[in-house]
Amino acid sequence: MEKFLGLSRNSVFLRLGLAFLCLWGLTACEKKPPLKGLAINVSFSERVLTDDLVTRLKVKYITTAGFQPLEKDYRIVAVALWQEKILFRESLDPEIPASRWQANRVYEIEKFIYFPRVIDRFNPKTAAGIKIGFSILMENSGEAEPLVLYSRKIKLLPCPPEAPEVIFLEGWEKIDRPRVGVSDQSYELWTGARAVCLLENPGRAALLMVRGRNYQESLNVSLFLDDGLLDEFTLGPGPFQKVYSLGPFSAKTDPELKLTLAVDKTLPVNQVYPDLNDDRPVGLRIEKVYFR
Fold first, then answer.
1. Kind of pairing, strands 285-291 and 206-214?
2. Domains of the chain, first to last
3. How far apart are CA 20 and CA 137, in angstroms?
4. What is the pLDDT of residues 185-237, one digit of tens each?
């Protein structure tokens, strides 16, 4: 759970792609890959899946003796849908591209994915959980429809109420913008040159994810956990996601951990959004700080 100075939760901004809404009707019935000689094995690191969850997705593409090499280049993506909304769309290309696959091989990829918060635990229709469509697609820019390699329904339960909280303190800026994707908030959250939030100590090991977008050509970012340097990296323009396995933390230590995000330069808001009369200096747009 997240709080911004006692206000509503931080939003998770996800892109909607109308081209994939038609897949909702396919997710319940597709059982076998449409490519001869290809089997797919999918597993999640968490036995019980909830919303507002980061989990490790592992996919194996298994080719048999009957597999025929592909004549085109394809992109492989994972898409999760609920009520005609895309919850996430993530690239699942293994190290060896599909156009170079051979028979009798196993190609693997592991990736952290994030199920956003979508369940209203106080709504009787969703309090017991929801079923979402999960598909693995093979796309080619020259084809109108993707190939559905794998699909199934996944049960998502509500995020446990005891999940650690993230409390945003100084150094953050809210920018009013239209709602995007499954977000329930009408603003974006940005860092200044230095922004601080508190992470509730879970008393065990936990995953930290920082996800957002950079609008500058090059930006140096430093992450500090309490008084220690956690990571330093340089971002180009576009989306980014960093995931860290932390701990274990003792419940006998401080009840909170301090996370600080620092950037080496900022830009005015109206340079990103010329329609706004706002010259506040901002660094990174943050879509999610996750700690659980």
1. antiparallel
2. 18-156 (2.60.40.3880), 164-291 (2.60.120)
3. 10
4. 689 999 999 999 999 999 899 999 999 999 999 999 999 999 899 999 999 99
Q: Residue 163: helix, strand or coil by DSSP?
A: coil
Q: How many angstroms separate the CA atoms of 224 and 125, rounded? A: 41
State how beta strands 130-139 and 53-63 pair: unpaired
pTM equals 0.82
The rounded distance, in Å, linking the Cα atoms of 177 and 188 is 6
- Residue 157 DSSP class: B
> What tokens appear for 192 in the block?
């200044």
Which phi and psi (to 5°) does residue 20 adopt?
-100, 0
Give counts: helices (H), strands (E), the chain: 1, 20
Question: Is 156:130 a contact under the CB 8 Å cutoff?
Answer: yes
